[in-house]
Specification:
This protein is mainly beta and about 700 residues long. Helix content is about 5%, strand content about 45%.
Amino acid sequence: MRRTRKKSISILVALTFLLSMVFVYAGPALAWTDNRVSTVPTLSDDPEIEQYLGTLTLLESDDYPQDLEGGKSFTVTFPSGVKIDDTDDPDDPNDSYTVVEYIYDYGQPDAKWQPLTKGTDWKKSGDYTLDITLPDDFGDRSRDGIRIKPVVKIDGFAGGDIEVTVDGFDSGVTSGKYVLGRVGEGDTTATVLSKPTIGETGKGGIIRITENSVNAIGDAKQEITIKLPKGFEWDTETKDPNTGKPYFAVDFMAGLSGSWQSVAQAVYVDGDYKYHVAGNGERTLTITFDPPSGRTQRGIIQITPYIVATSSADYGDVEVELSGDEVSDADLVIATYADFGVTVKADGDVEEVLAGQIDAELTKLYFKENVAGSFVPNRKIKISFPKWIKIQDVEVSGTKNINATTLKNAVKADIDGDDNEVQFVPLTSSPSGKVEFKLKFTVSIEANATGDIVAEVSGRAGVEGSAVVGKALAPVTATAGTPTQLSIGKKDQPIADITITEAKDGALMEGDLIVSLPDNIKFSGTPTVEVTAGNVELDEEGIDTANNELTIPIKSESTKPSTIKITGIKVDLDRTVPSGEVKASIKGEALVENYGDDPGQFDTSTVVKVAVANVVGPGEEKAKAVLTIGSTTMTVNGQEVAMDVAPYIDAATGRTYVPVRYVAQALGVAPENIFYDAGVVTLLKDVRAVQMTIGSKALLING
């Protein structure tokens, strides 16, 4: 085993050594030259146009400055349909053609790029491959390099990225594939930069027309037409009062920039006609312009539209038809035409808040004009909440074209902490843009309230609507076992167990949780109180009963929804308790922080009630006892009672035998009224005496 292990280790070491040799050898090969592409232009698919691709530069690496070997060759192959143009027309000063250059000592002050001799040092092989030979004296200097400036004609190329392949052929040039350009579809691409909502007049989204390749639309005088839908007209004359310039504008940018200005109508520069806009007050707009020649960059035309809606205009999207002599046709939505009005909605998910809180934060209420001017200045908005809500404070955010501080002061001025509605004037003048703002209200919620918190918006300021901005939850739920039967004037009577469960973690705050019974029903002793789920912490030593209230101090809030169970509850009833259902009220400062007479407070102290018993009058007592064969536990009105003997069935006779003492108690006979003497059982209840004698079939009632 040891020899085998050593042999395995030896093989592993040998493999590691061989692998290290492979990586050491491969490292320099990957770093012979640093290859990069200058730009990735988008070209036209017109086969008659000579077009530049991005420049491909191949330089010796800083780490390996003498790896290019003079006299060796490499190739650059272009994809099918991208034909290399290397023809120099001496009679055409604007003729474009492919150039290959070299440089010695790149980065040195006197270093400069020089052309390689075509036909000797480089040549085109077929339509798609360049064969390039490195100068003989490459490799003797610090950093040498080759630069290729390809000019091509697109003839049959499928479109997309133009990827060339460099094959170094052990020349020191790093092989690889490089994207030098791409071919787009169509002459131009038209987009809309935004889709604003407008009223009877307004500025639409900027229309951007982009050449898909340099000189795609040519340099001849041409027209662009933009047609509006029925019911709309162009407005090229109305001016912005702040700038004095027309809202409508045409901008020529990038390769089409030059002497043009962002103004409408006819434009002349140095006496030469540049462009003209016609169609004010009409559906169809015509832009006549003369692009500059000799462009080396794609051009952009941006049109800022300003339109007017007539009485026959339809509400909804405003879609224009774009066409022209050279630009590609397009249908574009430049705006949404809407009636005056204000959108009212909740901004985000509806917040769940707990009843009994005095500082519950609701979801933001969002206001936005459909079109500028929808808010009527100097008119009030009224925001109303349910009657069980009292507004405490407001936070303002997301304001546009309205002063946040002024708005906040206007709303807060009508908040007194004791009302469920607020009225305020949002604007005293009409701004030029659409008004937006958000209001986040802090409210007090009545302890026994649950359900949606709806903000109703009305008033004379031009806004109506409603939104659900909160959902009120009871902080706890309370359940009980089967209600027991209570008799008036008796002590130590059991009532149903009570279970109190948090709606969410932290619902029970530090302070006293109180279980309160009706007057004249008092706790007889302290029941068992325990946490059966979650991690709320109780002050167990402080649990106490006083008259009709059980106090459970909450020492620390929970981080997990918790459950408290109260068992073994017994009560005393005097003779003034009326017949009927008995409910326990769940209350206390651990649940309700807004009980009182101050602003923001309510006179409701109870969160929830739960039925725990029924009081019956004399002669109305009814009992339900359940005994199980072989069990020493019976239930009386749902409460478990321990017995010292179990019911059984006599196998010989088939008769069932039950303990008389416990059956009698289940029927309401007090333990002190059950006697046994010399084989005689006596039961006393009210005005009756029942006697049974061992061995006798006779039952005596009052003798």
